[in-house]
Amino acid sequence: MFSLSDSEFAQFQRFIYQSAGITLSDAKRALVCGRLAKRLHACQLKNYGEYLDLLKSGQSPDELQMAVDLLTTNETYFFREPKHFQFLKQILRGRRSPGAAFRVWSAAGSTGEEAYSIAMVLDDCLGGGPWDVVASDISTRVLARARTGHYPLDRLSNFPRGYLQRYCLKGTGAQEGTLLVERKLRSRVRFLQVNLNARLPRLGTFDVIFLRNVLIYFNLETKRGVVARVLESLKPGGWLFIGHSETLIDVSDGVEMVLPAIYRKPR
After folding, report:
1. Are 69 and 140 in contact (CB under 8 A)?
2. Average pLDDT value for the chain
3. Which pTM value belongs to this model?
4. Could you tell me which of 261, 265, 266, 264 has the C-alpha nearest to residue 84?
């Protein structure tokens, strides 16, 4: 087992903060050791210091992305925080301009369960009407998995009744214990690599943005910058959803709280 010195851990803390804006607490030291040890083996390096030198050298952009992927935590499941999806249905029922495409951004999309959950709700409520779902994450690894739409069945605890048969295929044989989001729905979700802590690409504007369970990894200054950039992509009158363990107090006055973890941008 490789040993991680205090100095090396501090350098990894700076690295992930500079790369993704994520603040790694001292309690994450074991996570850094565990997740990066496999890369030391793969690169045939003797210690974490040599791995840091490799990352800083700029000679391996792929390895740099790999390190970012491994140090960003990605935990999600279908219809997480169900009240948000119930509220999304209310928004859709109250639409005043049904002819326009309804656009939703899953801004910390991870492995895709959130984006596909959103897509199921939009398809259910809007039928053949125009809608668009964009999902983004900083990690190329989780985005690659998200695009497959293939998941273990243990992520179904909050699945609405009827959605499983309607939108998913249940695995059999070698794929038993898994599900596949049906192709038609997968084709309507776009997955993009986006670093929320940098200048955002041109994504257009959205009626709803899900920015859930990502602000907890940022310090106050970074939270303010991320939320300010994200709100530029939210339409006037649009809705912002954050995680129930998060708050925008002292972070932004660009939106008004409607319910806990649900905000609206003034028209």
Report:
1. yes
2. 90
3. 0.86
4. 261
